[in-house]
Specification:
- By secondary structure, the protein is an alpha/beta fold.
- The chain has 17 helices and ten strands.
- It folds into two domains: 192 residues, D-Maltodextrin-Binding Protein, domain 2, CATH 3.40.190; 147 residues, D-Maltodextrin-Binding Protein, domain 2 (3-Layer(aba) Sandwich), CATH 3.40.190.
- Helix 3 packs antiparallel against helix 13, helix 5 packs across helix 17 and helix 10 packs parallel to helix 11.
């Protein structure tokens, strides 16, 4: 695919999306919406990306015979509430997607009509099409380090004294502890699935506990780093650049050892208009739209070609850029669905000691 600057494609986005939908409707076995106008109901939780996702990924679906309706009741957490709402599309994180797919809440997608080859491998699942990619990475101040630090440096308080920021949750933090202890990304979840491996992660955290400043809100670590309250921190990568810009600081992230996850669009089993939802998924996966969304939010696109449409600076900060994904660890959502309750209980008890 030819690489175009995002700015140069804004004028023909609507035209291109129209062609995408027309091509889909022309396919003999493709899902075809009813002739009468249909209101596509999309459940998107409130939050910092809500407006951009709605405007750039979902709203382009609407045309002369389609309308798009938001359901404000979905909080992004309760699958029982989502089932009761019965929307046509729902934005869900990885764990909710796995749990909903296992329980039969979400439909299996027909990837033959969703341009499977267009998506990142981790953005493809039985019941979900990736909407965007997020990453939690090691963040640092360029004025404090002449070379990019690693998770090993993060633990080395003798050479690099100072406070460390970590998220107050087992998910992601246990993975980081094992990466810092020398476990390769490919072996992290195999290790966490054993009692000895889990104990190993907690022993590693024991070494750092007196120096940890726990963060809960995604905006906190970047702000702390910019203010000098922590020397190093784990942080949502998309928030680091924003914090640096606001504070006029040269903040950066270390992509090697980052922990990535995908948020997806899913179609509930009781969706009133599943065929129309399939059309909307095609539009939401359009590379141009994905690139515009990524540029607006700082999040990684779930579609490969979208990365090539990003400006150079935005690509360098994208969690979905191949060079940034190369050394990343993809969250195993299935592992956390199976183990989240007991591991969070153990983790919070450890934090409170």
């Amino acid at each position: 695919m030819t690489s175009w600057p995002v700015q140069s494609v804004r004028g023909w986005v609507s035209w291109k999306n129209c062609l995408v939908v027309q091509a889909l409707l022309a396919a003999a076995a493709a899902p075809v919406p009813p002739a009468a106008p249909v209101a596509l109901v999309a459940a998107v939780p409130p939050g910092p990306v809500h407006d951009a996702l709605w405007k750039l990924l979902l709203k382009p679906y609407a045309g002369p015979t389609q309308t798009l309706v938001a359901d404000p009741a979905w909080d992004g957490d309760s699958l029982d509430a989502l089932k009761a709402l019965a929307p046509d599309l729902a934005l869900v994180d990885g764990e909710h997607l796995v749990a909903g797919c296992r329980s039969g809440l979400f439909r299996k997608l027909d990837w033959a009509h969703l341009n499977r080859d267009r998506y990142l491998a981790q953005a493809i699942s039985d019941c979900g099409a990736g909407a965007y990619v997020t990453a939690t990475a090691l963040a640092w101040d360029r004025e404090k380090f002449t070379t990019p630090p690693s998770w090993s440096d993060f633990w080395d308080v003798a050479r690099h004294p100072g406070r460390r920021g970590l998220q107050r949750t087992a998910r992601g933090t246990l993975e980081i502890a094992l990466l810092a202890d020398g476990v390769g990304a490919a072996d992290v979840y195999r290790t966490l699935r054993t009692p000895d491996g889990l104990d190993r992660a907690f022993r590693k955290l024991d070494q750092l506990k007196p120096f940890i400043q726990w963060w809960d809100h995604p905006s906190e670590p970047g702000q702390w780093l910019a203010a000098g309250k922590v020397l190093l921190t784990s942080a949502p990568a998309a928030s680091v650049a924003a914090a640096g810009t606001a504070a006029h600081k040269q903040l950066a992230v270390q992509w090697a050892g980052s922990v990535t996850s995908v948020t997806s669009l899913a179609v509930p089993q009781n969706a009133p208009a599943p065929a129309v939802a399939a059309i909307a998924l095609i539009v939401a996966g359009d590379p141009v739209r994905q690139a515009l969304f990524a540029e607006a939010t700082g999040l990684g696109p779930a579609v490969r070609d979208a990365v090539d449409l990003l400006p150079v600076a935005a690509r360098g900060q994208s969690a979905a850029a191949p060079e940034n994904l190369a050394g990343a660890l993809a969250v195993d959502a299935g592992f956390w669905v199976d183990n989240r309750a007991k591991l969070e209980a153990r983790f919070l008890a450890w934090v409170a000691k």
